[in-house]
Amino acid sequence: MSQQPDTLTGHHMEVPVSHAEAGAEHEGSNSAISGAMFFWFLTIFVVAALILKKYAFGPILTALDQREEEIEQSLENADHLQRELATLDEKVQTKLDDADQKVRGLIDSGREAAREAGKVIEAKAKEEAQIVRENAQREIASEQGKAENALRIHSAETAVAMAMKLLHRELDAKGRKELTDQLIEGI
Amino acid sequence: MSVNSIAEKTEQVTEYISHHVMDGGAWSLGTLHLDFASANLPAAFRLSGLMSLMGASFLCWMYCKVYNHRARVPRGWTNLMETFVVFVRDEISIPYLGKEDGRNYAWLFLTQFTLILTLNLMGLFPIFATPTSSLSVTGALAFTTFLAMIIWPVQRYGVVGFMKNFIPHGVPVPVLFILIPIEVMSLLIKTMVLAIRLFANMLAGHIVLFAMIGMTVIYGAAALPAIGLGLFVFFLEILVAFLQTYIFVMLSAIFVGQMLHPEH
Fold first, then answer.
1. B28 vs A5: CB contact, 8 Å cut-off?
2. d(CA A58, CA A52)
3. Fewer CB near the last or first residue (10 Å), C or N of chain A?
4. Which conformational region is residue B159 in: left (phi greater than 0), alpha (psi within -120 to 50 degrees), or beta?
């Protein structure tokens, strides 16, 4: 049997020289069941299964179940909270609608009150304006009276002055006429 | 290149492939050469035995040490390993065994799934070999399913109940003489088919892969495109490794589920 290194797989290659030698290695053939290998692998499997069941798969499956339960619980809680939120939303909406209606009522009543107040103020203003107007008219009348009196006094004084001038001057008819015209123009 | 030279190289490659698919007693790690056969060690310490031990140890190390059991949100390797656990439990164990049994017996299918996948993928790394291309290994794996098909129903229904479930109701007694051997054979055949399917698929993949690479040894540079084909087969082997693992474990779950719930 010649030995050749296997560069592809790293397995040591023992190429059988003859078919007889190949037949001798039949026990090592993969297609034949070797009892020792069968029980050796069975032992490996059982030991690995026991270790993995106790230290790996058992705890992992328990943890997964717990996590799934937690997630399910969280989802239920979230669902419950969502329902509560929807209920609260409805309540808030109802309260907002109520508040809206109240505000509208307040605004309407405010407008009405403002309108009433406006009317009162307007009436009062009119009344005050009337008083002011009457006062002004009275004042005008009073001033007019005063002016007439002043005019009357002035006219009288002028007439007296004219009469005095007529008396003090001896005027002919022509001169009187000129004087009279002058006085008239002066008036 | 002469015809004789090609014939010699073809014979060499054929011998190499047939040697490679045999469970040899030696393992080379670069300069280190381990010859188990000459050390007169038991057959269990042949290459497949050693690879199986390494694969199982690696698996236990990964799930017991690398897996972060305290992580609330799994990441990285923990996430990958947990994906396998969730997949086997939710897609294989529970659908075929029911919710209660699927959870209780998931550990067996998880061990089968992770171990077979590890062993299948080992051969794709240059310094390792694929133990699942040995019929002894796949036979032992199938035997664990066989044990589960017998032990768990017996635990649940008792020996008499198991036998009653094993044989269809209302069958005349004379027919039982024919039916019982058929049912026993069916049970054994199911187990053997599991073993042979996995073994044949893993072995065939290796033979095809080495045949592709061997073409470059026989025909030289003219066969360089075969390297590309070999690369394609390599990726196909990855797919086959996952697919055969899934098929083996799924069929195991179906067989065990049939025995645990004979009414379905």
1. yes
2. 8
3. C
4. alpha
Q: Are B6 and B218 in contact (CB under 8 A)?
A: yes
* Chain-centre distance for alpha carbon B127: 19
Which DSSP state fits A54?
I
Q: Determine the residue type at A34.
A: S
Q: Decide if the complex's ipTM is over 0.90.
A: no
The closest alpha carbon to B249, from B122, B139, B106, belongs to B106
Place of tokens 């029980």: A39
Contact of B58 with chain A, judged by CB distance below 8 Å, is answered with no
Contact B170, B223 (CB under 8 A): no
- Average pLDDT value for chain B: 83
Expressed as residue numbers, the domain containing B211 is: 3-260
Q: What is the DSSP string of B177-209?
A: HHHHHHHHHHHHHHHHHHHHHHHHHHHHHHHHH
* Confidence band, pLDDT 50/70/90 cuts, at residue A13: very low
| Whether B230 contacts chain A with CB within 8 A | no
Q: Which residues in chain A have their CB less than 8 angstroms from residue B140's CB? A: 37-39, 41-42, 45
